[in-house]
């Protein structure tokens, strides 16, 4: 089964494209990075101060060289992943979250133990495809060193394809070097960078420099826009799609000038500003409209598309969180997402996360994955499957039922299908079920194998990058503690 959410007609798609060419050529984008401006001038683009103007030929050439799919190598070869159009969405956890909601309903800053637990949930997930070294952001005594330490923990505790930080040139280069070391100095795509524009119609130096390093080292980049309609983009949603398209193509062009053929994921997390709270509203229906419009533009350019995820404005796992997250996950798939960051765990429009919400979002995505599988496998003798039960007077005792019901029917991890009395007897609470599953998963976690010499090499590299051994921030027994039980705390 395939979902197909369309908000733009074929004529409107071409109007957005032509309007993009007009704006990029006539008004241009502000590029706040000297090295980027030098690159644009070297390739013949007109600049005026920090403004760069893009001709039709430059735009179309860049779009022609960006691939529609790419393969991301994982530390475990069996988990190596192809991301691209026409493929199931590659799912990644939350990213950049500074606050955590505890089981007793209190919100507090993220700690290092929380980050470890989130890596354990990532590694044990039956739903996620990627690990993210910036899923949570603990408060480190040395913030820049913390970025390298998070990647060190991610490499040690997971073996999935990776999303890495792109916080300027030094961090980007260090992160890529760490991943390459862990994968055996591999020159293939091994880590995805996330680079966001600066709305309206600009890019800042930190993101452009991160994008430059990822491009020069041949690593794929998710180029995204996160604008707020009514504040940093037009109140008109059609204008929001146009602005996002301009900003994303500006980043894409820069990447293709640096490294023709570099994999680029076209993305947006743009939504509206709530005029009451003056904050980003990701649970709003307008978010899905903007996402769908940008998804159609990505399809027009035959690019992988980053859709949203389990996004909500809710503060806890409640009815609002369930409705908004399910809505956004489903419509992101309908918008053609081939890459989905923030797919699980997010609350309060990126500001908070919780482990019970993580499990809940996995359950939603598992249901959608079952929908994607459709009515397969299709019986060779379609009439025969009915005739067999007709002859037997029912289907329950048939060998075909006993053999296939587990693969045909998905049994939920969360939710209850029993009687009201049975549900009440066992507690009758979805959040309690979710936290029980969290504890089960954390207890079941086993770190993937990482050769001692590879770990020692990574430790030495982190010491060179940060000026201190990892033990200074993680404790002397940090590697042994990878096998320890949950760091779950109130």
Describe this structure in words.
There is one protein chain. This protein has one domain (1-374, 412-490): Trimethylamine methyltransferase-like (TIM Barrel, Alpha-Beta Barrel), CATH 3.20.20. It is built from 17 helices and 21 strands. The chain has helices at 10-26, 34-42, 56-65, 112-123, 143-157, 168-182, 205-216, 237-258, 285-300, 319-334, 355-373, 382-392, 399-408, 420-425, 430-444, 452-466, 471-474, and strands at 29-31, 46-48, 51-53, 69-72, 81-84, 90-91, 99-101, 107-109, 131-132, 162-164, 191-196, 202-203, 221-225, 228-229, 264-268, 271-273, 280-281, 305-307, 339-340, 346-347, 352-353. The longest helix is centred in the middle third of the chain and has 22 residues, at 237-258. The chain starts with 9 loop residues before the first helix and ends in a 16-residue tail after the last helix. The mean pLDDT is 94.
CATH top level class name: Alpha Beta
Lateral strand order in the biggest sheet: 6-19-18-15-13-11-10-9
**Cα-atom radius of gyration:** 24 Å
Q: How many strand segments? A: 21
Mean pLDDT: 94
Q: Beta fraction of the residues?
A: 5-15%
Q: Tell me the structural class.
A: alpha/beta
Could you state the CATH homologous superfamily?
Trimethylamine methyltransferase-like
Number of helices: 17
Largest sheet: 8 strands, parallel
Second CATH tier, the architecture: Alpha-Beta Barrel
How many domain units?
1
């Amino acid at each position: 089964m395939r979902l197909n959410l369309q908000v733009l007609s074929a004529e409107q798609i071409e109007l957005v494209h032509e309007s993009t060419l007009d704006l990029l050529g006539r008004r241009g984008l502000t590029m706040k990075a000297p090295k980027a401006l030098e690159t644009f001038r070297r390739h013949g683009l007109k600049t005026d101060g920090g403004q760069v103007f893009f001709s039709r030929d430059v735009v179309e050439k860049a779009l022609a060289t960006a691939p529609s799919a790419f393969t991301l190598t994982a530390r475990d070869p069996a988990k190596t992943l192809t991301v691209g159009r026409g493929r199931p969405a590659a799912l990644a956890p939350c990213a950049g979250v500074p606050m955590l909601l505890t089981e007793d309903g209190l919100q507090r800053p993220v700690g290092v133990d929380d980050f470890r637990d989130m890596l354990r949930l990532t590694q044990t997930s039956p739903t996620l495809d990627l690990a993210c070294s910036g899923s949570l952001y603990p408060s480190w005594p040395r913030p820049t060193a913390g970025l390298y330490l998070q990647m060190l923990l991610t490499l040690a505790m997971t073996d999935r394809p990776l999303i890495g930080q792109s916080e300027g040139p030094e961090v980007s280069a260090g992160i890529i070097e760490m991943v390459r070391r862990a994968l055996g100095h591999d020159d293939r795509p091994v880590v995805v960078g996330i680079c966001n524009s600066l709305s309206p119609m600009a890019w800042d130096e930190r993101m452009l420099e991160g994008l430059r390093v990822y491009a020069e080292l041949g690593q794929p980049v998710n180029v995204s826009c996160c604008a707020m309609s009514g504040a940093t983009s037009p109140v008109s949603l059609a204008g929001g799609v146009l602005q996002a398209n301009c900003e994303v193509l500006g980043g894409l062009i820069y990447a293709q000038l640096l490294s023709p053929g570099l994999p680029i994921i076209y993305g947006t997390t743009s939504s509206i500003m709530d005029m009451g709270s003056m904050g980003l509203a990701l649970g709003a229906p307008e978010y899905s409209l903007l996402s769908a419009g940008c998804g159609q533009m990505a399809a027009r350019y035959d690019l992988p598309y980053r859709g949203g995820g389990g996004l909500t404005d809710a503060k806890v796992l409640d009815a609002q969180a369930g409705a908004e997250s399910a809505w956004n996950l489903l419509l992101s798939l309908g918008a053609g997402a081939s890459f989905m960051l923030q797919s699980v765990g997010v609350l309060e429009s990126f500001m908070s996360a919780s482990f019970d919400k993580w499990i809940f979002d996995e359950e939603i995505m598992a249901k959608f994955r079952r929908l994607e599988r459709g009515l397969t496998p299709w019986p060779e003798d379609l009439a025969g499957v009915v005739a067999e039960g007709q002859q037997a007077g029912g289907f329950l005792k048939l060998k075909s039922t006993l053999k296939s019901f587990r693969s045909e029917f998905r049994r939920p991890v969360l939710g209850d299908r029993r009687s009201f009395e049975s549900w009440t007897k066992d507690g009758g609470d979805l959040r309690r079920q979710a936290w029980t599953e969290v504890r089960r998963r954390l207890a079941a976690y086993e770190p993937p194998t990482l050769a001692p010499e590879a770990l020692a090499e990574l430790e030495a590299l982190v010491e060179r990058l940060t000026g201190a051994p990892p033990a200074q921030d993680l404790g002397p027994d940090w590697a042994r503690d990878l096998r320890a039980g949950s760091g779950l705390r109130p």
